[in-house]
Specification:
This protein is an alpha+beta fold. The protein folds into two domains: about 10-175, no CATH class; about 210-380, Histidine kinase-like ATPase, C-terminal domain (Heat Shock Protein 90, 2-Layer Sandwich), CATH 3.30.565. It has eleven helices and seven strands. A five-stranded mixed sheet has the order 2-4-5-7-6, with helices on one face. Strands 1-3 form a two-stranded antiparallel ribbon. Strand 4 (about 305-315) and strand 5 (about 315-325) form a beta hairpin. The longest helix is centred in the middle third of the chain and has 65 residues, at about 145-210. The radius of gyration is 38 Å and the shape is rod-shaped. The protein starts with 9 loop residues before the first helix and ends in a 7-residue tail after the last strand.
Length: about 375
């Protein structure tokens, strides 16, 4: 199974999809012309109903023939203005220069667009022997509509600038999220890597204690250690594995410990079948069982027992590890706080990194005596291991 990676939220995914669509030329043109077409219908209806209440009413088609020209000219102009806004953004470093450039471009827009509007309108609808074309009329139209044209240019420029700032904000947010995910992955990897030398040193210490006293047992422990290391290295890149795979690791670890404890250690597992494919943190059970062996079994001369159970309920996987040792007092300080070693501390940190507040990890006295460790994690998806 691949390591856990955060899934993008719905707003972030929607923004990314919208950004990809906007970058396609035909989509951008379609949106711009769609907006200006709506404005053209608005202008047409305004003229039609105004004239309908006057002494010289006109048809809706006559109103549309003139009122669609100006918005469609601005539709083409909008594309050019957006290009200019991207080419000469109103950033702090170049604000004065680019403002002057946009003022120049706006003036050219006022002249060219209003002049072209009057020329098209005249030759399509107004041209007649009684009303020949005159440059003076075009100049008057340019001057009359200049305030409106400057305002539209400024509005489009500000609209693009706002869109640009929002886009940069979302890109920065995405980069921050990616960096946070990378940091989380690095922390998880560091926590998991702590387990390997911790477990290895403990096992080698046990082997060294047996190598002269019981060479045959020491030899068996070395063989089992090799099997365990092979299994862990095969999944060293995964932060999660299926519960079934995790139990295979644990079984191999328990084989090592049975060599050391011989007849003093018995284990019992009650694993619900449907829980076997549930993802769990890689090597999450080994430090819990190691803690039970160290504090619950090793200090006693009487036989020790460890029971491991797992089942799914209400969207959670509940795992319990119970021993028959002295219970919570074995890992309690004089002030009542737990004296947790590296294994349990590491386990808490990994669970917090992977699941946040969605998990629970509790240590308590078992009803029949001994220590009970209860772990609950959310069932997020089926294992692909």
């Amino acid at each position: 199974m691949d390591s856990m990676t955060p899934e993008p939220s719905a707003p972030r995914a929607g923004w990314a999809e919208g950004e990809r669509l906007w970058r396609r030329g035909w989509v951008r043109w379609l949106i711009i012309f769609g907006v200006w077409t709506g404005m053209a219908f608005l202008f047409t209806n305004q003229l039609y109903y105004t004239r309908l209440l006057s002494e010289r009413p006109i048809t809706w088609g006559d109103a549309a023939s003139s009122q669609f020209i100006y918005p469609y000219l601005w539709a083409f102009g909008t594309i050019l203005i957006f290009w200019l806004a991207e080419r000469y953004p109103l950033d702090r470093q170049k604000m004065p220069r680019n403002l002057l450039l946009h003022l120049l471009w706006a003036t050219l827009f006022v002249i060219a667009l209003n002049g072209l509007f009057h020329i098209i309108l005249h030759f399509l609808f107004l041209d007649s022997p009684k009303r020949p074309y005159m440059v003076r009329d075009t100049v008057q139209t340019i001057i009359y509509n200049s305030t409106e044209a400057y305002g539209i240019y400024a509005l489009l420029l500000l609209l693009h600038q706002g869109f640009r700032y929002y886009r940069r904000f979302r890109e920065g947010e995405l980069r921050a999220s990616q960096l946070e995910a990378q940091l989380s992955q690095a922390q998880l990897q560091a926590l998991k890597m702590q387990l390997h030398p911790h477990f290895l040193f403990n096992t080698l210490h046990s082997i060294s204690a047996l190598v002269h006293k019981d060479p045959e047992c020491a030899d068996q422990m070395i063989a089992r250690l090799g099997d365990f290391l092979r299994l862990t290295l095969e999944n060293s890149g995964a932060h999660e594995v299926s519960l079934q795979k995790e139990l295979e690791f644990l079984g191999c670890y328990l084989e090592i410990e049975r060599v050391r404890f011989q007849d003093r250690l018995t284990t019992h597992m009650e694993i619900e079948s449907q829980a076997l494919d549930t993802p769990v943190p890689n090597l999450i059970l080994q430090p819990i069982v190691e803690n039970a062996l160290r504090h619950g079994i090793a200090p006693r001369s009487s036989p020790g027992r460890i029971k491991i159970s797992a089942k799914r309920k209400n969207g959670l996987l509940r795992i319990e590890v119970q021993d028959n040792g002295p219970g919570i007092t074995a890992i309690s300080k004089s002030n009542g706080r737990f004296r947790e070693g590296l294994g349990l501390t590491n386990t808490r940190a990994r669970l917090r990194q992977l699941y946040g507040a969605a998990h629970s990890f509790d240590l308590s006295d078992a009803p029949g005596g001994g220590l009970l460790v209860t772990l609950e994690i959310p069932v997020t998806r089926a294992s692909t291991s």
